[in-house]
TrEMBL record:
Name under which the protein is recorded: Sodium bile acid symporter family protein
Residues covered by region (Disordered): 1-28
Pfam families, sorted: SBF_like
Stretches that traverse the bilayer: 47-64, 76-98, 110-133, 139-159, 180-201, 221-240, 247-266, 286-305, 317-343, 355-373
């Protein structure tokens, strides 16, 4: 009997071991489920960032033929921007747009930061880099000046502001004002910084560029791809409000704005890789531009966020934070080709590399920032919903 009892002693230990194994398996499954949930959330929330990376990878391997680059650039730029602002016209109330046009203090603050603050910071960095003539290619230094002096972009900041639950109407208004001021302010800023007489300015041959061509191109693009689509969208929203809301909000066709922006990014990098601009620049310069693009974006974003939170509500802060650091590559290209004559194609491409790289990082960082901004504004949105529901209940 004793021996039989002793023989049964190990069974409880076996049960404990089996239970521990089961618990470990459950913990392992729980961890894997958490990882899968996080990955699923990341893909659903940051699909734009993933798609952008894929597009840049494809652009580096396959490009549109050189003979079709001009047609591709014109069609994509006009069509993509038109889709973005048509959707804005269909989804933003006319009253809200006019209210934001009247806010001259915000306009003055944003445009001063977007032109003077960013250009001054770029000139300071270029001046530091220029102390060693063998460190950076002169065309890249001049390209950095163009980045700092360029206006805010018309497309990515509007899309990102909407994704971050900011004031998309204010961002739209700032984009229009910034693009309108560009032909007048950017050439003046560039000429002012280039008058320093530094060694890198000697590579340029200044000519009597046709500035009228800049004005014509800018205002033509503003009219055909911004004002006209916005107006048509407002008309559609006025006559078919319920249908418009159902199509763009419930059916989520508002995401076409993001798809249009991806098309513009593909166009930009396709042109850059086709021109061979990246192959003509030293690897150390490319690495420097990567770090500098990230540093400049966060510097301008930090200053903008700090100064705007003092006197603006959160939705407006988000809009301003997407306007000030963002730069329009679409304006840098025509400006470089008109302001300076007799530049070889390879030098022209090198001049545009800083803007191309900065645009890629501004979209990538802006996409990630939408998550942080949504969390930051969530408490205010929940309070607004609660007050709205309380008001409805009291009305009943």
């Amino acid at each position: 009997m004793v021996s039989s009892a002793l023989s049964l002693d190990p069974e409880p230990n076996q049960d404990v071991t089996g239970q521990e194994r089961t618990n470990k398996e459950k913990e392992g499954k729980s961890k894997s489920h958490k990882i899968l949930r996080v990955l699923k959330w990341f893909v659903q929330d940051q699909w734009f960032l993933i798609a952008m990376g894929f597009i840049i990878l494809v652009s580096s391997q396959v490009q549109v033929p050189e003979s079709q680059q001009r047609v591709k650039r014109t069609v994509v730029t006009y069509l993509a921007v038109s889709v973005i602002f048509f959707i804005n016209g269909c989804t933003l109330s006319t009253r809200l747009l006019f209210e934001n046009y009247k806010r001259w203090k915000v306009h003055a603050s944003v445009q001063l930061q977007c032109y003077l603050l960013t250009s001054a910071a770029s000139f300071a960095i270029v001046s530091i880099c220029a102390t060693n003539p063998h460190f950076m290619d002169p065309w890249l230094l001049i390209g950095l000046l163009f980045v700092g002096s360029a206006p805010t972009t018309m497309s990515s900041n509007v899309v990102m502001t909407r994704q971050a639950h900011g004031n998309a109407a204010l961002t739209t208004v700032q984009s229009v004002i910034g693009q309108f001021l560009c032909p007048f302010l950017t050439p003046i800023l560039i000429q002012m910084y280039m008058s320093s007489g530094a060694w890198y300015t000697k590579v340029l041959i200044t000519g009597a560029g046709e500035y009228g061509e800049i004005y014509r191109r800018v205002f033509q693009q503003l009219g055909l791809s911004l004002f006209l689509p916005m107006f048509i969208g407002q008309v559609v929203q006025y006559y078919f409000p319920e249908t418009t809301k159902k199509v763009f909000v419930e059916w989520k066709l508002i995401k076409l704005s993001s798809v249009s922006l991806l098309t513009m990014i593909w166009q930009t990098f396709d042109q850059a890789f086709r021109s061979g601009a990246f192959d003509a620049v030293k690897a150390s310069n490319i690495v420097f531009l990567v770090f500098m693009s990230i540093a400049l974006y966060f510097l301008w974003l930090g200053i903008c966020f700090t100064t705007s939170t003092i006197w603006l509500p959160k939705k407006d802060v988000i809009a301003v934070c997407y306007c000030c650091p963002a730069k329009a590559l679409a304006m840098v290209v025509p400006l470089t080709s008109v302001m300076y004559l007799n530049i070889s194609p390879i030098d022209q491409s090198k001049l545009q590399i800083p803007a191309i790289m900065y645009q890629g990082f501004q979209v990538a960082i802006g996409s990630i920032m939408t998550v942080l901004f949504r969390r930051w504004i969530r408490t205010d949105e929940e309070r607004e919903d609660q007050e709205k529901n309380t008001g409805i209940a009291q009305g009943r």
